[in-house]
Amino acid sequence: MKKKSLKNIFISSIHQNAGKTTVSLGLYKALTTRKLRTTFLKPIGQQYVNVGALSVDKDSYLIGEVFKLGRRLSEMSPITIGRGYTKKYIFNPNKDYHTKKIVKAFNSLTKGKDAIIVEGTGHAGVGAVIDHSNADVANLLKSKVIIISGGGVGRSIDEIVLNKALFDLREVEVLGVIVNKVLPEKYDQIKSTLTRGLANKGMKLLGVIPMDPLMMAPTIGQIQERLNLELLCGTTGTTRRVKNVIVAAMEPHNMVNYLQDGTLVITSGDRVDNILLAVSSHLIHDGRRFQISGIILTGGLMPNPKIVELLKKSSIPVLITNEDTYTIAGSVEHLICKIQKTDKDKIKEAEVLVKKYVDVDAILEGFNGHETTAKE
Q1: Which of 2, 101, 114, 343 could be joined to 78 by an S-S link, Cβ 3.0–4.6 Å?
Q2: Is the domain of 278 the same as that of 362?
Q3: 193: domain range?
Q4: Does residue 129 share a domain with residue 52?
Q5: What's the CATH code of the domain at 297?
Q6: Do 115 and 129 belong together in one domain?
Q7: Do residue 127 and residue 85 come from a single domain?
Q8: 347 and 325, same structural domain?
Q9: Whole-model pTM?
Q10: Which residue pairs from 338-341 have beta carbons closer than 8 angstroms and sit at least 24 positions apart in sequence?
Q11: 266, 276, 272: which is closest to 324 by C-alpha?
């Protein structure tokens, strides 16, 4: 079935968590702002949520909720892969089954549409174990690819070229590259170097997005859920964002220098001095915006009941764990939280970042005179 002038954009990356969802959200908004009737497809999802009787990829669910596409969720997420799926497939392969489901979903979603964003999973080769790598699917759907890379130069170009080689092998055109999470102090240098470096490899730089603290910041509730911590008090504050984390193993007169708005304090449950300092800093604003985002009490130690009562009155969310301070601090530091539908600030920020830093018009120009035919 021919779909003339369909803007058929496949979002790939050089590794997981490079920013595909951020780009997908922002690009979807940018396309609809340009009056293009747009839809979304995640052909193969690895992380999913249960919506009624459906298992729906998390990104499809997010896009569906943000842009009111809920009625199309089953088509937006035709295949989800749970634990043990790949092993079963290896011993009982059925490539045609996956192919037919993906093509059927694509053709249904694109009826009457001007554009579709197809979001891959990880790098170009992910999915090969079930005979549907990102490169295979992009070829199947006759998409054009945008590769998302993390900040940096040498390693980024090396990995971009490696991914492009697989797309080339599958005869898939790469529209260009978007580089995400670039350190602000290195922004201009990296942008100019990558522009030349990618041009030397026959590729176009479509955008450079600076590292944004908001996009990296989890909420207290997300930390609680992901690390399976118990909430002692402060239920109403679990939506607070963690902008800064300190391990309060120092004396209070030193700790006070590290407290700032949005700080998560991690301390042993018996360090009453630091607990009280966090509470007093939260309650005494001194004419400035200041809010302790939360406290994690470690070591399975609980402060005196009078201190617990004070914590409850402060409205600070307090989490407790049996883990030691440095173990839990390491877990928080390496925590990666996908954007959720409740993250309205992150969703808005994603739209702003793409609008400001990505050349959407250059992406659309890449489809001039192009026809898309999904293989039946």
Answers
A1: 101
A2: no
A3: 2-212+339-373
A4: yes
A5: 3.40.1390.20
A6: yes
A7: yes
A8: no
A9: 0.88
A10: 338/21, 338/47, 338/58, 338/59, 338/62, 339/21, 339/22, 339/25, 339/62, 340/62, 340/222, 341/61, 341/62, 341/65, 341/66
A11: 266
8 Å CB contact between 210 and 357: yes
Q: How many domains does the chain contain in total?
A: 2
Per-residue pLDDT of the chain (376 residues; tens, 9 = 90+): 444 589 999 999 998 888 999 999 999 999 999 999 999 999 999 888 888 888 888 999 999 999 999 789 999 999 998 888 999 999 999 999 999 999 999 999 999 999 999 999 989 999 999 999 999 999 999 999 999 998 888 889 999 999 999 999 999 999 999 999 999 999 999 999 999 999 999 999 999 999 999 999 999 999 999 999 999 999 999 999 999 999 988 888 888 888 888 999 999 999 999 999 888 888 776 545 678 999 999 999 999 999 999 999 988 999 999 999 999 999 999 888 889 999 999 999 999 999 999 999 999 999 986 555 565 5
Number of neighbouring beta carbons within 10 Å of residue 47: 13
If asked whether residues 16 and 126 sit together in one domain, one would say yes
